[in-house]
Design goal:
By secondary structure, the protein is mainly alpha-helical. Helix content is 69%, strand content 0%.
Length: 167
Amino acid sequence: MVQDSLGILLGFFVAVTLQVLLFDHINLFGFSCPSVYLFFIISYRFDRSQFFLILLGFLLGFVLDIMQSSSGANTIATLLISFIRPWVIRFSFGIISDSNSLLSMKSRMGNQALYIGLMILIHQFVLQSVAYFDVTHTTLILRNTLVNTALTFILLLATLNLTKKKN
């Protein structure tokens, strides 16, 4: 149990560190920045405490908001996807009984891509909506959401395939 908790904390710090030191400095097209820290929430084990995930999602967003000097958009977006994650899992995979992690899952790649894509799309839409918070910026919100979702999706799917446990 202690080893699992240390692994979760290590993953948390790695996600924050990589995002702040490396991926925040990638600006594709001058505005797109991948949110690879979502891998922490997406790959969190399915059989773990939902409350703990929501708490970690809040802390993850809060730390990123402090490090990026943003207005709380990361906190709101990560808190939301941490909260709705069980519904997205059920929608993407149906009932899961034989697996407890996305990394050890034997389901079809399409289901995993749907799960990752929905989580990223919801996160990015909420993040951009809160960051701009104005109806007059609707096209900017949609453009940033789609480009950031595509870039993050490609990076997270590649990371998932690299870190997936071979059975």
